[in-house]
Design a protein that fits this description.
- The complex is a heterotrimer.
- In chain A, the strands form two sheets. A five-stranded mixed sheet of chain A has the order 2-1-5-3-4.
- Chain A is an alpha+beta fold.
- Chain A starts with a strand and ends with a helix.
- In chain A, 34% of the residues lie in helices and 14% in strands.
- Chain A is built from eight helices and seven strands, in the order ββαβββββααααααα.
- Chain B is of the alpha+beta class.
- Chain B has 17 helices and 22 strands.
- Chain C is mainly α.
- Chain C has one domain: 3 helical TM bundles of succinate and fumarate reductases, CATH 1.20.1300.
- In chain C, strand 1 and strand 2 form a beta hairpin.
- The longest helix of chain C is centred in the N-terminal third of the chain and has 32 residues.
- Classes of the chains: A alpha+beta, B alpha+beta, C mainly alpha.
- At the A-B interface, helix 1, helix 2 and helix 3 of A face helix 3, helix 5, helix 6, helix 11 and helix 12 of B.
- Chain C: Keywords: Membrane, Transmembrane, Transmembrane helix.
- Chain C: One of its GO terms (cellular component) is membrane.
């Protein structure tokens, strides 16, 4: 059953174009059934009524699918629970009186916009380089034309679940976007629909990823632990294979 | 204002084909001279932007999110309907059309619904070609499951994340066109007004959410794909940022708003558990395939679920609707849950919940099977409630989920303001008074991929739209009005937060204009809403400044619109003194407590025209005619 | 153009890093260890191994050239990768828990650097060191490498410590490098099934300890 707890917060505050700093807040009388973001709502209401500016944090669906939310909570992306986004982390996992440190997802490719909000548009730019099948509306054959092995469809779906939250980048000691890129490359590598473009897809996406200043993979697998959707590093292995194959066979 | 639905001539099944032939076309070389603004990047917005760009139009697409992929379409769990008839269970375009008209309780426009059913199959073809990993059978073919309001299995799905996969498909198509240069994407850019010049929509005013800067954008046509207004209730299954502002500004600029009282209350959501709660979480309707809904037969039964013997349980849906059982349409499932809770038979700490029990299904199919089907949903439930649905029945309660009402559109999806289109949940056209499960994704994609790219030509080809330039006074006026409003909000400096007001408004609406509505309650709400609004403008506290990322200001600007919109919604609910679909008027029910439609009085679309805030809006009625599906009282018994 | 782009891409660099590393591992480290083990079997066998090795001059030179190339590529790529990674994550989290990252992975650049220093020292110690000639029982003229190894360590605990210490770096480096190179080649290393990871650790530390035994034995006599 739910109870009320009090917490001490150290929250990263930063304005556009300025250096940031940690500030202390108190979160009192927090219901343990509340979500982490609802706890921040309560704190923000108090800050507002006290004449301050509320903590800016990104959020939208609050059911773990839109990929908006995410911060480092006590040094862990999305907090302490595996396969959980911050909005789905509940306060029952915190102890009364605990100090909670909250800071934004950091990476050179994710500049801070304000407080806990970072710019993750690099991920969109990677997708724009080929994270899709180029089929114009109206071109499609009847859906049942190509049977696809159930296992392949399932493995593709495993990869396709990525919500683009950027936790993998923040968790990576090198600020790499390999898991993100690998998930999209894998989704299409596993399906026949993705095959005609697989060469330019992997080359284009990896190239963009490098250009945007994401780091290199050093196979430390922090990303996979951080991923709220449990996307496996085998996708990175597949990305590497796809890359080698594409580099050897590219016509350009 | 005269509403002309422009329904094409000819037999129902040929209307769309005929219409596509009859609309004017823009020749390929001229297409690139036309710019179209699309507001919103969800299923409808992203698919429309991508497809129009493929055709050659210049498209500017706007979203307030940091990426088009965040749109709330992403949260749709269950699936998407199509009349493929792969399971060979007797499905057809006509049956999907029929089910949708009937499910909508005969308050939708037949021609639009038939077109929707026709497009449904094309959507599946297209999405499969896009590499969307739909669920498959061992033979490699696409799998289907069943959903409420239908007796066939026609729902395609990708685990519990169908909306996500379809949105990412549309987002991929959009990304492809962004890369090609056909679409210019504006992220973190909120549209805050529509600019009308000489009676036609010619552009928008937007606010950059990072810098606070206002900017003007001109176009030949504006397409709103901004979703529904469910967040007017404060607590709903919508994402936190969903809002009615763009549609509301369009209404204030002359577009009629249709059937605002039609809101869908989804039966299977996790019950409210505290004051702090910010949103409600939906559990997919697909759970009703195997879960059985029940409450104790006795009032105030405090025993834990597993201590209540079988013969003291009331499986009320199975009892009352033997033909459809737990798979009755959403409005019926929701209303019945409310009825049993009002009788004092609700469960859980607040008494506002019913059980959704999988014990029998687990026994019949085995835990592994249930886990494979619903594992992620069970996990989500467990995470939120800290209870294990494999051993204890889930507790669920209805919550605001979808809004069938929206901007009035004709068959071309153009609003009554020329040059302004509305697609997806943002318009009113296809779902009548109740939407069937797995139909929202279908409509969003049908509108975006297949309808608007075919109908917008007609407007662009038949109208001379000279460049006006964003220096035009209409742009300057709209920008100034927007700036003034933001400044005004910041200047109030009162004692209550935006959320505080939003909660008050939402609570009032839920109580008086929620699952059951009465003349008395609605009149009471009509008295209270202006007072809340007045206090809002006197006592709201919006911190920060307008030239910075300011989430409180964004929210305040949206809630200010909800304060006005709520009144129209209640007015519409009061005007419609019948029960239909999601709109249940207590005065209009059968002896058994079922919704009673009054076709002779209310078989129309109620479209409201703005007359200034201080004046009463004017109601226009578009009569609904049913040629193919005979008007009848719905029965799911 | 594509080739250059491929080589200088993040994955291309990692591939070169893995390949050069594996070349050194397979063509140098493993044979070297095999030779070293002979030390444990007394001066005759060891000296004759060294003698035979010298007679294979063309092959040895070939391998030496390959090693020089590999080590250059390995170091250039390592510098590029480490530098790029530092740049990609220059704004560190103030508090960051690692859940999966191993100590070996964290130490890669440092253990790599240490190994490089070690190699230089090792070459000075043995390759470019004056050796005494002896005549074997078959009448061959050969260097008394065995005696040289003994002389380098006996009565010099500091030198011993240096060698053993640097073998720690080898152990750390290999235990991450072996499985990491397989992942880079696209061979899947399951996160929860750590057989390959375990093998990598066992081989890495096994080899490091084997190398460490020689100076220890030499010290003890």
């Amino acid at each position: 059953m739910s109870e009320k707890i009090n917490l001490k917060l150290k929250v990263w505050r930063q304005n556009r174009g300025e250096a940031g700093r940690f500030e202390d807040y108190e979160a009192n009388g927090i219901d343990t059934d509340a979500s982490f973001l609802e706890m921040l709502d309560v704190v923000n209401e108090e800050i507002t009524l006290g004449g301050g500016e509320p903590i800016a944090f990104e959020h939208d669906c609050r059911e773990g699918i839109c990929g908006c939310c995410g911060s480092l909570v006590n040094g862990k992306t999305h907090g302490s629970h595996e396969r959980t986004t911050l909005c789905q982390l509940h306060m029952r996992h915190f102890k009364d009186g605990e100090t909670v440190v909250i800071e934004p997802f950091r990476a050179t490719a994710f500049p801070v916009i304000k407080d806990l909000i970072v710019d993750r548009s690099g991920l969109d730019q990677i997708i724009a380089e080929g994270g899709y099948v180029s089929v114009k509306t109206g071109n499609a054959p009847e859906a049942s034309t190509t049977p696809i092995k159930k296992e392949m469809a399932e493995a593709s779906m495993d990869a396709a679940q990525c919500i683009g939250c950027g936790a993998c980048v923040a968790a990576c000691p090198n600020g790499a976007a390999m898991l993100f890129t690998a998930a999209k490359v894998s989704q299409y590598a596993l399906l026949p629909q993705g095959h005609p473009e697989r060469t330019q897809r992997v080359l284009g996406m990896v190239n963009k990823m490098d250009e945007l200043g994401f780091g290199n993979c050093s196979n430390e697998y922090e990303c996979a632990v951080a991923c709220p959707k449990g996307i496996d590093v085998k996708n990175i292995a597949r990305l590497n294979r796809e890359f080698v194959k594409a580099s050897l066979t590219s016509e350009k | 204002m005269k509403l002309d639905a422009k329904i094409p001539e000819g037999p129902m099944a040929e209307k769309w084909t005929n219409h596509k032939f009859k609309v004017k076309l823009v020749n390929p070389a001229n297409k690139r001279k036309h710019k179209v603004i699309v507001v919103g990047s969800g299923l409808a917005g992203a698919s429309a932007s991508a497809t129009m760009s493929e055709l050659g139009y210049k498209v500017d697409c706007f979203t307030y999110s940091d990426s088009p992929r965040r749109a709330h379409s992403i949260a749709a769990q269950g699936g998407i309907n199509a009349a493929k008839n792969y399971p060979n269970d007797g499905d057809s375009v006509f049956r999907l059309f029929y089910d949708t008209v009937k499910g909508g309780d005969f308050r939708s426009r037949e021609a639009n619904v038939h077109r929707l059913a026709e497009c449904s199959n094309l959507i599946i073809d297209h999405c499969v070609a896009q590499g969307i990993p739909f669920a498959r059978e061992y033979g490699g073919h696409l799998d289907n499951r069943s959903f409420g309001g239908a007796q066939v299995s026609r729902t395609f799905y990708a685990r519990g994340q169908t909306g996500q996969q379809l949105l990412l498909g549309a987002y991929g198509a959009l990304s492809k066109e962004i890369k090609k240069g056909g679409v210019t994407m504006y992220t973190r850019e909120e549209v805050i007004d529509i600019v009308v010049i000489d009676g036609v929509a010619r552009g928008i005013i937007s606010r950059n959410l990072v810098t606070g800067e206002l900017s003007r954008h001109e176009a030949d046509a504006v397409v709103l794909a901004t979703g529904g207004y469910g967040n007017v209730f404060f607590l709903s299954t919508n994402a936190m940022n969903c809002n009615a502002s763009a549609a509301w500004r369009a209404y204030k600029k002359g577009a009629a708003f249709a059937n605002p009282c039609y809101t869908q209350i989804h039966p299977t959501c996790i019950p409210v558990h505290g004051e702090y709660q910010s949103k409600l979480t939906l559990m997919s309707e697909s759970l009703r395939n195997d879960g059985r809904i029940w409450v104790p037969k006795a009032k105030d039964d405090q025993r834990p679920a597993n201590q209540i013997p079988e013969d003291e349980r009331d499986y009320y849906l199975e009892r009352k609707y033997p033909a459809f059982g737990n798979l009755v349409p959403r409005d019926l499932a929701s209303r019945n849950a409310k009825m049993v809770c009002d009788e004092g038979r609700g469960v859980g700490p607040t008494g506002n919940a019913v059980y959704l029990d999988f014990a029998e299904a687990i026994e019949r199919l085995g835990r592994d099977n249930i886990e494979a089907k619903y594992g992620n949903l069970f996990e989500m439930y467990n995470r939120i409630t800290d209870e294990d649905p494999y051993t204890t029945p889930m507790m669920i309660y209805p919550a605001v989920h979808y809004t069938m009402g929206g901007l009035w559109v004709d068959y071309n999806l153009m609003t009554s303001l020329p040059g302004l289109y509305a697609i997806g949940e943002c318009n009113f056209s296809d779902h009548g008074a109740n939407r069937l499960g797995a139909s929202a994704l279908m409509q969003g994609l049908a509108d975006g991929y297949f309808v608007i790219p075919n109908t917008i030509n007609d407007y662009l080809a038949s109208n001379n739209l000279p460049t006006v330039g964003t220096d035009h006074e209409a742009f300057a006026e709209a920008e100034k009005a927007a700036q003034d409003k933001l400044d005004k909000l910041l200047a109030v400096n009162g004692n209550r937060t935006v959320d505080d007001f939003h909660k008050e408004l939402g609570h009032l609406l839920w109580e008086n204009c929620g699952m059951a509505r009465s003349e008395k309650g609605l009149k009471e709400a009509l008295e209270k809403i202006p007072k809340i609004r007045e206090e809002f403008w006197k006592n709201v506290n919006v911190p920060g400044s307008a030239d910075d990322l300011n989430q409180a200001l964004e929210k305040a600007n949206r809630v200010a619109d909800f304060m006005e919109f709520a009144e129209l919604m209640v007015k519409d609910a009061l005007e419609r003194a019948e029960s239909c679909g999601g709109h249940f008027r207590e005065e209009s029910q059968t002896e058994e407590g079922e919704a009673l439609r009054k076709d002779d009085e209310f078989c129309y679309v109620g479209a409201w025209e703005f007359q200034g805030l201080e004046n009463e809006p004017v109601l226009h009625k578009e009569a609904l005619e049913f040629e193919e599906v005979k008007l009848s009282q719905r029965s799911y018994k | 153009m594509t080739l250059k782009r491929t080589i200088l891409s993040s994955i291309g660099q990692k591939l070169l890093l893995a390949t050069s590393g594996l070349i050194m591992f397979l063509l140098f480290l493993i044979p070297h260890m095999g030779g070293n083990v002979l030390f444990l079997f007394g001066p005759d066998l060891f000296n004759s191994y060294a003698h035979h090795l010298h007679q294979l001059v063309p092959i040895v030179i070939g391998i030496e050239v390959l090693m020089l190339a590999s080590i250059s590529v390995h170091m250039i790529m390592a510098f590029r990768v480490v530098f790029a990674n530092a740049k990609a994550h220059d704004k560190r989290h103030t508090q960051k828990d690692s859940k999966e990252r191993s100590l070996a992975a964290k130490l890669m650049p440092y253990s790599g650097g240490m190994i490089f220093i070690f190699i230089l020292k090792h070459l000075l110690d043995f390759k470019f060191y004056e050796k005494t000639e002896i005549i074997s029982e078959h009448g061959d003229h050969m260097y008394n490498v065995y005696a040289m190894v003994l002389s380098r360590f006996q009565g010099d605990p500091l030198h011993l410590l240096f060698y053993v210490g640097f073998m720690l770096a080898v152990g750390f480096h290999l235990s991450h490098a072996l499985q990491s190179s397989l992942q880079t080649y696209g061979l899947y290393i399951p996160r929860n099934d750590s057989k390959i990871k375990l093998a990598s650790v066992v081989i890495g530390w096994g080899m490091a300890s084997t190398f460490a035994i020689i100076p220890i034995m030499a010290f003890v006599g």
